[in-house]
Amino acid sequence: MASRDSDRLQLVLRASKEGIWDWDLVRGTIYYSPRVYRFMGYRKGEMPNLFENRSQFMDPESVAAVDEALRRVVQEGEDLFAAEPQVKTKRGDWKAFRVRGTPVRDDLGKVIRIAGSLIDISKRKKAERALAEERHLIQTLLDNIPMNVYFKDTHSRFVMANLPTARKMGLSSAEEMLGKSDADFFSGEHAGHARQLERQIMETGVGVEGVTEKEKWEDREDTWVKVTKRAWVDGDGTVRGTYGVTIDISQLMRTREELEKVTAELNQQNSRIEEERERMRLIFDTVPMHVYFKNLDHEFVIANQAIAKWFGFDSPEKLYTKTDRDIFSEEHWRKAEADERRIMETGEPIEGTIERETWSGKSDTWVMTSKYPWWGSDGEIVGTFGVSTDISDLMTVQQELEQSAGRFEKKNRETAEELKLAREVQLALLPDHFPLTTGAAGVLRFYRLYEPAEQLTGEFFEVLPLGKGRVGFLMGEVFDKGVRSALIVSMLRGLIEKEMAVAGDAGAFLTNLNTGFSRLLLDSSHPARAAVFYGVVDLHESRIQLASAGHVNPLAVFEDGVRQIVPPEHACGPALGVTGGTQYRFVEASMEGLRRMICFTGGLRATTDRQGRAFGVTRMLEEVERGGELSKVMARLAEAVKKYEGSEQFPNAICLLGWEITNQV
User: What is the pTM of this model?
Assistant: First the structure.
């Protein structure tokens, strides 16, 4: 019977593609099945123990992976030994293996033996690397082409966008756009029109191509784009949403409006690229520009249909292995090759240049072109790639553009002076010194820290003396920018002065502010919102009221630690201006153990690093918990946020209002 079982085992081993190994950790011996020897190129009996001698046969990354797998089995008691190491064969080449094993333990739980299987996965690993290279190439193109590319689901929510699209929307990364729609960025009118068009495209399957579209924003001037939108259909014919490509033509459209002459026609051609992911192929085939990749010898190796047609070929394949020498005049190809050599030597791109193309046998043309280094996945430059757009017709308006440049420059100087004056007025209106408030609970001191942004923003704060050991404190921000934000802040300050009679009741105070603010906005064509956090401190009763109108909650220092104050739901209402009939309420609590409080605006917490990760409340609490003088704590917190963001000039305003209770006058 044992012989029959052994025969069956040998039969299974011969039929299997996996090799078998059995490692005796006590004796230091190991058994390999014949297939393992064939994998590694050794004869039976001469193959070393790969696991004990792994540093000689595996690369450092694989050694670390095997070490970790052994640690989990031996030290943590896991029942699966698993790794995928790169192993050097007897011939000196490298193979990738999928290794799995089961530990055997003695009565004390110590691992005395591990037995398992391994299978050659070199082909799979090679395919994975090839796929990663293709994805890297496409992502490089998407994040560098001067156009916006995106996919939306059937509800018109973004499910994919390239980096230029995110930056256009005022975001720092494409991930921040996911789940949002046009309604989160544009005016209601524009978002509604876009949604209606996308529904029509999904229902009929008929897209739009090269359409000039005016984009209306809530917080900036209108822009114009050339738009291509089509239905996003998967392999089985199911409509998954829409995808689009847009090119910003705002400057050209403004010039045309000024001179009543300029017309811009941006040609769009389908392009191709062979790669696995269908939507990536759709993007490359839809790019309305000339797109190409060249190797280190200046030869075309990838091109889209648009540039092939531009050069007079009926397919991109006929362009491959050719250079500019086969197409342009000597004057042009010499300059083009010099540019490409400089890019490959320095790694620096050449962006947004107007280039004159001189041909042999036909008239000159003009293109707007950008050229970039083509980085391989290993970090080495493997060539160059570029994008260009035909602007030959637009060059005819060059003279008119130069004539209007002087007028635009004067207007820009005047606008800059007005913004500077508005910023100075805004800074002058912020309180700088605060009176002491005293009562049975101690002495209350206020501190402020405000660093304005380059652009006008709507942060503001107030300290309201209420008499008899009582004081109110308010932190707010307007959801707008520019001069408009400063005007809205001025309106709110006027309302605060008007409602001082009810400032001792946090709920009534916010209710009256919201009613007055909503009435002031009735005649405005632009909606406005303002987030406000308000509190009332009573030093005689040692009580505090808190109420929020859509604002971030402050940080508080208690005798037993530091945490963020989170008022109950009934004390948290929407931002001012959302609806005029909102009745705000407050929560009241004892101040026992409360020593400090720091209010801040939302932009501070939402500051992100270069990878798009938010600074967050946890890091803020850590800075405050270090302690020290309150003014220094606030300054240290501001510096930590700026350092985390990482740029030379911090782009956002920093606004902090803090107070502390002491026994000293």
Answer: 0.41
Based on the domain organization, do 483 and 627 belong to the same domain? yes
Q: Domain check: are 107 and 181 in the same one?
A: no
Query: Where is mean pLDDT largest: 107-121, 217-231, 337-351, 531-545?
Result: 531-545
Is residue 325 domain-shared with residue 219, that is, in the same domain? yes
Q: How confident is the model at residue 418 (pLDDT cuts 50, 70, 90)?
A: very low
User: Between these two residues, 553 and 314, which has the higher pLDDT value?
Assistant: 553
The dihedrals phi and psi of 263, each to the nearest 5 degrees, come to -125, 140
Nearest 5°: phi and psi at 58?
-125, 150
Mean pLDDT across 85-100: 91
The CATH number that applies at residue 515 is 3.60.40.10
- pLDDT at 138 exceeding the cut of 80: no
Indicate the DSSP class of residue 53.
T
Strand 654-662 relative to strand 594-600: parallel, antiparallel, unpaired? Answer: antiparallel
Report how far residue 362's alpha carbon sits from residue 366's, in angstroms, rounded to the nearest whole number.
13
- Please state which of the ranges 84-93, 130-139, 392-401 shows the lowest mean pLDDT: 392-401
Whether 311 contacts 359, CB under 8 Å: no
What CATH number corresponds to the domain at position 65?
3.30.450.20
d(CA 51, CA 97): 13
**What range defines the domain where residue 89 resides?**
2-120
In the chain the first and final C-alpha atoms are separated, in Å, by 97
Task: Please indicate, yes or no, if residue 417 is contained in any of the structural domains.
Answer: no
Q: Decide if 222 contacts 214 (C-beta within 8 A).
A: yes
Both 463 and 606 in one domain: the answer is: yes
Computed over every residue of the chain, the mean pLDDT equals 83
Summarize the confidence of residues 169-182 as an average pLDDT: 86
SS3 content of the chain, % helix, strand, coil (to 5): 35, 30, 30
Q: Are 391 and 447 found together in one domain?
A: no
Q: Which two tokens stand for residue 190?
A: 């524009």
Per the structure, the count of domains in the chain is 3
CA dihedral 641, 643, 644, 647 (to 10 degrees): 110
**Residue 579, pLDDT above cutoff 60:** yes
| Cα 479-485-486 angle, rounded to 5 deg | 145
Domain boundary among 92, 120, 148: 120
Do 635 and 503 belong to one domain? yes
Whether residue 245 is found in the same domain as residue 205: yes
Instruction: Write 366-370 long-range contacts (CB < 8 A, 24+).
Output: 366/390, 366/391, 366/392, 366/394, 366/395, 367/290, 367/391, 367/392, 370/144, 370/145, 370/146
Residue 419 pLDDT grade (very low, low, confident, very high; cuts 50, 70, 90): very low
Q: At what angle do helices 506-520 and 483-498 cross, to 10 degrees?
A: 130
DSSP string, 485-553: HHHHHHHHHHHHHHTGGGTTSHHHHHHHHHHHHHHHTTT-SS---EEEEEEEEETTTTEEEEEEEBPPP
Task: Retrieve residue 268's tokens.
Answer: 């769009």
401 part of a folded domain = no
Computed over its alpha carbons, how large is the radius of gyration of the chain? 34
Residue 405 has pLDDT above 60, yes or no: no
Strand partners, 490: none
Angle, helices 630-645 vs 616-625, to 10°: value is 140
pLDDT digits (tens, 9 = 90+) for 209-239: 888 888 888 777 888 888 898 888 887 888 8
Cβ pair 653, 459 in contact under 8 A: yes
Beta strands in 376-481 (DSSP E): 381-390, 437-439, 442-451, 457-467, 470-481
Separation CA 538–CA 468 (nearest Å): 8
Backbone angles phi, psi at 46, to 5 degrees: -105, 0
pLDDT of residue 604: 84
